[in-house]
Amino acid sequence: MMDLTDRHCRAFLRLFSRHIRLYTEMRVTGSILFGDREGFLKYDEIEHPVILQLGGSDPEQLGKCAQFAEQWGYDEVNMNVGCPSDRVKNASFGACLMANPTLVADCVASMVDAVNISVTVKTRIGIDDMDSYEELVAFVDLVSKAGCQHFIVHARKAWLQGLSPKENRTIPPLHYDRVYKLKQDFPHLMFTINGGITDLDQAQTHLELLEGVMIGREAYFNPWVLHDIDSRVFGEPVDGLDSSPIQTRFDIVEAFLPYVESQLSQDIYLRHMTRHILGLFHGQPGAKRWRRYLSEHGPKHGAGLEVIEKALSFVSQEAEKEGGDAGNSDTSQDPSSQGCSSHRDSSRHVFLEKEDVGLAAAG
Q1: Could you confirm whether 83 is annotated as catalytic?
Q2: Domains along the chain?
Q3: pLDDT top residue among 304 and 89
Q4: Model pTM?
Q5: Cβ neighbours of residue 245 under 8 Å, at least 6 residues apart?
Q6: Mind listing the pLDDT tens digit for each residue in 31-41?
Q7: Could you say which of 207, 216, 277, 358 would form a disulfide bridge with 353 (CB–CB 3.0 to 4.6 Å)?
């Protein structure tokens, strides 16, 4: 998600699992080739496994950017063919590329030839009136022959005219059955399903038929949905990066503080980290005060760890008044905006999706 899943967000989400695969914001090839390359590609080592998602339509440029991804140590490179926003469409990449599968295949072939890491494609099930299953099969067939062995499929078509990116995430109906059928018709390929999946119960149902499940916005706005993903999906205890148990939301905050402190020491403003943790106490007593205090005081000049500690005290106080445990309550079933992603191969990877361009856009 553009402007959301930056490196600070990914460092925070990594605390919930050792295995989830984290996606960068979509990076336009021209920005990497001719802009602030280090700024666009920089990440923290704790983020692994981490995937660079690219937006572009020039095979040579995509090949070069894939090489940069490999050189920087990314675990995978992903080509976005799912974003329906006007901004992306006008630049001739994103979902509009589904109308030109030959070009997508050329782009994939260029990236596959350039690197040794995996090259994947994120796509929709169709666009506008090009939404038949036969057209989707032809697209997957051609692109897979170019070297893509793993498709992340948002199980909605995209309307490039008439719907906003936000509407394209909800109005076109979901067709999970088409993704299942793709797996039946291409058993040698890997498929990850995306769209409308908001909890681990749904994810595990999909994982019975597919290699992966991708959840984007739920994981951002209600990150606690991920808290037991390692134990439920990977059969491992829910431990932090230092092997200390992660049992409550307060444990997550405690585990995040060293990262925040290290970034502050590098003159990174506190607000760049705190904006990503606003949803941690989603649905819990004191959540509103938590969000408000971080939002009001995080951007202030010189703000430090004391802001997070003060905000945490409001949640603790509210939990005590209610006689509950705000850090332990399970809200994995609570509704929220949308989004996370899980992928299962032989090691049952689960990853968080970076959903395309714009605060509200999704592929």
Answers
A1: yes
A2: 7-237+336-352 (3.20.20.70), 249-322 (1.20.120.1460)
A3: 304
A4: 0.86
A5: 237, 238, 239, 251
A6: 999 999 999 99
A7: 216
